[in-house]
Amino acid sequence: MSDSKYTCLIVEDDPAFVEILKIVVKKVAEVELLGNCDNTLDAAKRIDLDKPDILLLDINISGLEGPEVLELSDHKPKTIVISSHPEEVMENYDVEYVYFIQKPLKNSDQLVNAIHKCIKLLDH
User: Fold this and answer.
1) Nearest by Cα to 84 from 104, 69, 98
2) Residue range of the domain that includes 83
3) Given a cut of 70, is residue 90 above it in pLDDT?
């Protein structure tokens, strides 16, 4: 039986970065990792099916642009945007997200803190 209270889905197409994200998510005891999607069309279906509480979302990913996943999904998880192009997030998309993390991930604490911010929002 898991003590996890929240669920998380990773949407990222770089296999090496997915492994880093998985390691960091597992540091947060309250969060269960549902898995990852490497393209946006699968992600949109999975978000509505699994209804994750937290979404780690890459912007530049195969399929649709990352933010379009949220437009296609009925379920709206707390979203942490992860991208190497912050200007694209700010200028090109009207995305509601809790936190932005720029690639490469400089230290795991940044992502852990972002996940904890999502948890606080989910608790209210």
Assistant:
1) 104
2) 6-107
3) no
- For residue 11, which of 72, 50, 77, 55 has the smallest C-alpha distance? 55
CATH code of the domain in which 22 resides: 3.40.50.2300
Are 29 and 3 in contact by the 8 Å Cβ rule? The answer is yes
The secondary structure of residue 85, as a DSSP letter, is: -
Short-list 122, 97, 91, CA closest to 11: 97
| pTM, entire model | 0.90
Residue 49: inside a domain: yes
Q: Does residue 112 belong to any structural domain of this protein?
A: no
Instruction: Report which of 59, 63, 57, 114 is spatially closest to residue 89, judged by C-alpha positions.
Output: 59
In a domain, 113, yes or no: no
- In the chain, the number of structural domains is 1
What are the pLDDT digits (tens) for 60-75?
Answer: 776 666 677 887 888 9
CB atoms within 10 A of CB 78: 22
